[in-house]
Structures are given as C-alpha cells and as structure tokens.
User: What shape does this take?
Amino acid sequence: MNRSARFALLTPLLVSAVAMPPTMAAHATPAAPATAPQAACALKVTPGTSDFELELTGFKPGQQVNVEGPEKFTRTIQANGSFTEPDVTKGSYTAKFGKNKKNRQAIGCTKAPKITPVRITGAEITSPEASPAEVDCSITQSVTFVGRLTGTGTGDVDYKWVSGGRSSTPSLKFTAPSTPTAGFPVKVPGRAAPPAGAASPPVHVTATLTAGGSQDTQVFTLKCRAGT
Assistant: This one.
C-alpha cells in the first residue's frame, strides 16, 4: 500500500473524531455530583406544647443525616423524604449529609419562634348546663363537669377542681386563646326515699374550677323522680 492510500484510510477516522455531535460530547463529560438544594432542616415548637422538635424534609429516602447542635444524632430519612426528631433541646443545629467527605454538604436549621409564656386570664365551667330528665336519686348518680381556660401563650397549665370534700389537680397543654379542661366526674350518693306522699326534693351538686387567678363555681341540679 502506497503512502497516499494510507492517508486516505486515516482521513475518515480524523473527520469522525472532529465532527462528533455535541450531544455525544456531553454524554462523555462526567456528571457533576448531585446536590439536594431542596433539603431543609427546621427546629419547631411541637403543636400544643412548649417542647421542640427537629424536622428534616426534602432529603433522599434512606439517606443518613448527621445532626449537630445542643444534641447530636444520626437518623435515616423515611420513604417520604422526611424525618422528625421529637423532644430536642432548643438551640442552633446543623444537618450534614453526603456519601463521602468530597460531596459532604451541610445546611443550617432554621430556629424555632419564641414561646410566649402562658398567662391564664379566665376559668369557666361550661357543662353540664342543664338538668337531664328526672333520675332515681335513691341510687348513686354521676355528674361530670367540664371547663375552659382562656389566656395567652402556649405551655403546661395546672388547674384545680373541687366538689364537696373531693378535689383534683390535673394539668393540660394550653394553647391560646382557649383550651378545654378534662372532665371532672362527681359521684352523688343515693339517698333514702322520702315519706309516702311527700315531694322528692332535688339534689344540688356544686363544683369549683380554679386556674391562675381565675375561678368559677357552678351549682348543678339533679331532678329526682317521684318517690326517690
């Protein structure tokens, strides 16, 4: 084969290398490391409480994230791309993620809003409001009182129920402007039947609700069936 023939065979190879389509060249370029610009971390107040929780969103499912701050922990992201860690200490946190040091990323967690201290300005007994149908007062009856606290702020609140010689001091997670209390059941012992032909007087049940500097008292009347 002469020299001209050899150049003729090499020419198509050189042309194809020079004229390679841009799309092929792009495919040949190594892809940049994937990032997660949508990944977010936020410290939030747990609804209805004065506690804090740290919420991770926008991550890859199954990805491990290291959280550093007043508390340190590593968590695996759930299938929906998020994870919530309850009961964390308030402070500044950073979320770090990535398979290796070269591709490691870190994002700051947004801070939780300030919690307004609770201030109770009102306590009201809301039920029972009216007497039910006549009942048999010769046997034990039960009356359940329910109240509502009003005020400002969010957090734990202690309150007190009193009825006769019985009292109860529960607490609730207060969320402004108002939050209902748990029910306070009062047992009314049965009484002896009145003399034949005598009227059956009603039974009065009194309960008092106290919270902060507020108080409310309600007298509930049980209508007694004739002869009881």
Observations:
- Confidence is low (pLDDT under 50) at residues 1-20, 22-26, 31-36.
- The longest helix spans residues 3-18.
